[in-house]
Design goal:
The structure is a single chain. The chain is of the alpha+beta class. Helix content is about 25%, strand content about 25%. The chain contains four helices and seven strands, in the order E-H-H-E-E-E-H-E-H-E-E. It has a seven-stranded mixed beta sheet. The longest helix has 16 residues. The chain is globular.
Length: about 160
């Protein structure tokens, strides 16, 4: 499936929030203590205007397919950024779009001067966790930074080359 990858626009907010919350429902993931109930999920455009952050959006002929971004989460080392808001619509999962979004994020992290990428996830998203491992993420014993998403119990880190 062919996708155009571009930065988030203000008019993407509503559909991206719907895609994110639908993923939690599709995989029976908890809502509390996750991005599902995080108020920033409804205004991603504003959140990702902060320096050192970016949200990439994939768009296909059928509309917005999903997103993946970088955010310098409070408490992370200055050379480490968090991979955040990585969600795809149900009909676009498993078609290579997620990998394309992640690769774009890795390049952006390098461009911003980061050399490590951190992420948090849930066991319900095991397919994504498998992809993270294939892309060089290793599991950590404890969280880094202060994302405010206390329900996430999978923490991973990737060193960029």
């Amino acid at each position: 499936m062919e996708a155009v990858v571009r930065q988030v626009r203000k008019d993407d907010n509503q559909i991206l929030a719907k895609i994110i919350r639908s993923a939690f429902d599709d995989f029976n993931a908890p809502h509390e203590g996750t991005v599902y109930t995080d108020p920033t999920t409804d205004d991603l455009f504003t959140l990702f205007r902060l320096p050192g952050s970016v949200l990439w959006v994939a768009e296909t002929e059928n509309g917005i397919a999903g997103c993946c971004g970088l955010y310098h989460t409070k408490g992370l080392d200055e050379n480490c950024v968090e991979l955040v808001k990585f969600y795809l619509s149900k009909d676009t999962r498993g078609k290579g779009i997620g990998r394309e979004l992640m690769e774009r994020c890795f390049q952006s992290a390098r461009d911003f001067g980061y050399n490590k990428v951190y992420l948090e996830s849930l066991p319900q998203f095991s397919r994504a966790v498998s992809m993270y491992e294939k892309l060089g993420f290793r599991t950590l014993d404890n969280p880094l930074g202060d994302s405010g998403h206390g329900t996430c119990h999978i923490w991973m880190l990737k060193e960029l080359d």
